[in-house]
Amino acid sequence: MPRPRTILMLGGKTPSSFPDADVSAGLSQKALADAVGRLKRALAEGAFATSAEDFDASVLHVKIEYVCPMHPEVVEDEPGSCPKCGMDLVAREAGEQTPEGGHDHEHHHDHEHQSQDHDHDHDHDHDHSNEHSNEHQPEHAHENAGTEYTCPMHPEIVRDEPGSCPKCGMDLVVREDGEDEGHSEHEHSSHDHGEHEHGGHDHGGHDHGASGFMSMIEVTKDLPRSADGLQMDWLEVPFGPVFPGLPGGLKLTLTLDGDGVTEGQATSLVGVTSEGENIEESEEMDAETFIGYLSAAIPLAPVSYRLLVCLAIEQAAGLEDDSANAGARTGALERERIASHLGWLAQLGRQLGFAWLTQRAATLQLQVREANRDSLAALEPALHKLTIRLGRTPLLKSRLKGVGLLPTDSFGLRGPVARAADEGGDAWARLWQRLAEISASLDLIKSGGEPELPVLRDVGDVSGTGEATVDTPRGEARLSLKLERGHVKSYKLDTACSQHIGLVPKLVEGQELGDALLAVGSLDLSPWEVTS
Fold first, then answer.
1. CA–CA gap between residue 132 and residue 135 (Å, rounded)
2. Residue 243 burial (10 A CB sphere; 0-12, 13-18, 19+)
3. Using one digit for the tens of pLDDT, what is the confidence trace for 309-347?
4. For tag attachment on the chain, is the N or C end more exposed, with fewer CB atoms within 10 Å?
């Protein structure tokens, strides 16, 4: 358990297991409001201290043991359930008296023997010793020789002497005459002294199945064991396709062991078809229609995929590179890259609970999407200020550093994920890679032409094959296609997100739930760019 930085105690004394409270208050709304204000000030003053006092509490200096309230002879070093009745063991300091309601059988038993064996003067005669011993016998030992005892909850339990029910631990009561004997289960103590030593208590364990009690040991005995040694139910939990901090359309399924993730996988519910082979004539699309189809199918990066199709079709038509429009196309591509990275920052803010980041990044994203070159240059100070603030955000580095660390055998990486792999390969590195790309894209736009939406040059009714590669905001996308008389006959698409989605199982396995969600979010997966 992390060492608490501040402790707020309402309406009572600080438990012995904690250090003294930093702030104490009574149980009222006014006292609570005042205490929260003082707690915030205490946290602000101590959150960035270069050192902290060692955790110390009196409970650390005493031995704690755990005992059953009904069977005080059951004493364990760790919490758990009583193996006899299934009740939760309660904590006590070593050496403390048995909890109320229990009977220390061993002490009582020894006391009887001591009374019988040692409480006599050596000069007493034999008759006087027998008289003294008889004083310790139950008054009804001879009078009730034919009396039977039964359990109020389990009438089938019938004994010849007082004791406890072996199923529920309740004291046996005198059985009334005339009770139904047809269902009785006579287990007389005289028949089996091994089971009924010390007043009829069964020290060999109870039948939990018959009594209705079941300890956690029995409940979890067949469950898989976690890394921390605990045995718990594993739950398969879906996150998405609408979940704060993850892109819409992405379904993330995690198997949880408590708050830890044992395995996981991500799938897209809105992915684009990766290829179309030998498209029927009725389904063929002319070049312009195919451009509109693919760019609309990927709404998070429509400009990138519009440019990708234009380049592939122009190559199939045998056209040379369009140097006249290269600057405008590059400007539009880089403008989309800036907007995409700002959208990812807004998503990161939702995951981290940074409302200011979500609001600021989303506002800048809307301003960038349709901005011209001059407007983008005017936004540069605001973008630079956002980068500086992220660098100064308290505890951000400790939250992202080491989270989503890429496995050493990762392959097929592209875009920011691949470039950040050389700088640490975690969520912290991917954040700063995208911030660096925003700055680089601004420089390219300022030195190039006015950003303009890519337009396909006139290719006529040509036939041929072409392929192209575009570095989209999430990495390289590759398209190859075949034209027949100006119509797309077949195509094959390969995207960065189709490769990166395969990283999810390794990134989430063995992680805490919060870290697993953050790791998946740091990949910036676009469900529309996951091909199927």
1. 5
2. middle
3. 999 999 999 999 888 889 999 999 999 999 999 999 999
4. N
